[in-house]
Amino acid sequence: MASEIIGVVGAGIMGRGIAQLFTQAGHTVRLHDSRDGAAGAAREFVLSMLDKLATKGAMSADDVRAAAGRLTAVAALEDLAGCTIVVEAIVEDLEAKRALFAALEGIVAEDCLLASNTSSLTVSAIAAGCRHPARVAGLHFFNPVPLMKLAEVIPGLLTAPAVTDRLLSLVTGTGHRAVRAADQPGFLVNHAGRALYTEGLRLLEEGVAPVADIDRALRDTLGFRMGPFELMDLTGLDVSGKVMQSIYEQFQQEPRYRPSTLIPPRLAAGLYGRKTGRGFYPYPEGVKQEPAEPPPPPAMPGTAWVQDGEGVDALRALLAAGGATLADDPAGADVLFTLPWGEDVTAVAVRTGLDARRLVGIDPLGGLAGRLVLMASPATDPALADKVHGWLAAAGRAVTRIQDSPGFIGQRVLAMIVNTGCEIAQRGIAVPPDIDAAVRLGLGYPSGPLEWGDRVGPAKVLAILERLLSVTGDPRYRPSPWLRRRALLGLSLRGE
Ligand SMILES: NC(=O)c1ccc[n+]([C@@H]2O[C@H](COP(=O)([O-])OP(=O)(O)OC[C@H]3O[C@@H](n4cnc5c(N)ncnc54)[C@H](O)[C@@H]3O)[C@@H](O)[C@H]2O)c1
After folding, report:
1. Domain boundary residue, one of 397, 415, 437
2. Mean pLDDT, residues 237-243
3. Residue 69, SS3?
4. Of 65, 77, 397, 478, which has the fewest beta carbons less than 10 angstroms from its beta carbon?
5. Residue 423 annotated among the catalytic residues of the structure
6. Catalytic residue among 4, 88, 152, 423
């Protein structure tokens, strides 16, 4: 790919990362910041990062020297005159970005591309301040730029297709994955990320389980590196709360993205997370304190019957290993087990006529590998839940006990993630391979939403959502037409 002369305006966290990425990729980079000395300091920072790479053997000393020669800090905006592309990473303010692009239009050549690293502004609104909006597009990187190997290219409504294509190949040339996203709220990644936060908060609002149990269950059963509450504490609720509210409003109050009433009082109290020493968790001396799990009750003798369904053999084997006597008939058993998809224990008891006092649910998601999630209805005898916990612990399993919830914790969160991915595809915001790649690389999820949905089974995901919708009556759970049609027709969610 041809080497470009790239201007980077704004030498803060993002600007310096963008400058490093393009310099390393062989482009000439001119870095500018309106704050005196900021561009020079950012250049020094980038060179120190390249030196570190050389020390680790990831870059040769010659390459570092050559890169240093290609990266300059410039004092005046006018010094960007010869650039072929300018990327701005200044303050997130529409008027400031418009004023900058208007000024740049008086400096750079007519075929110079103007790209914005905005994370929340409408690209078309930034472009609308320009004489030539066709050359303006969004180019959204993630922090830290060299390590987060993804960038979203966002054409505004008036962006020329050639501009989008050039930015896509510019990103690809750096070794990052480029995805194309429509100029819609949150673009692709921040839109796809809504489900984990809002459904985590929903589970907490409903009293399904406390914060640490929800995070633990999502880490251990779905393979997230962090649960939603740990993530909010890391980002800071002042930031993530604002993003949640803004995307919800920009989507015309779409219930799927509705934030939680739990947030405003936490913001008022300053419980932002790590940065204030307390969020959903306390951080004495900066270290997260997660409440320990109570020791499991001892295994007691008793009889267990398991309703037929996916995972029945695995559960029976675990119960036997934990000391339970297996019964073939529910009539004589102390505890009745169900392995429901999208139903709570109450719904199973009502549908099947099984005795609600003796009935508990175990989440079949993930084939009962690892941590088990045990669910009880309001009618379940608490002593029985203790007994079950004792058996499963004696079989060597960690157990999370939750209140009745259609879809437990994991199924609900997963179904919402898949449904959001499906909505992104349905709205034409991005194509399936880009949706999956962006979620893996940009959000660090173990899987993209569409491939995850295909693995669990679109029909199962649809059933979870339909049951959630029927139990709660909340339109946030209505299935995306993308999901419904493909589930009903037996097609992959990744088909175009
Ligand atoms: N921090 C992130 O995680 C992240 C991720 C993706 C996108 N973004 C977006 O990237 C942009 C920059 O964010 P950041 O975190 O690097 O901010 P930052 O505050 O670290 O840096 C912004 C820099 O821009 C400079 N600046 C402000 N106005 C200027 C102007 N008119 N001309 C020249 N320089 C100017 C400031 O002096 C500062 O050095 C924002 O649009 C933000 O929304 C941030």
Report:
1. 397
2. 94
3. helix
4. 65
5. no
6. 152
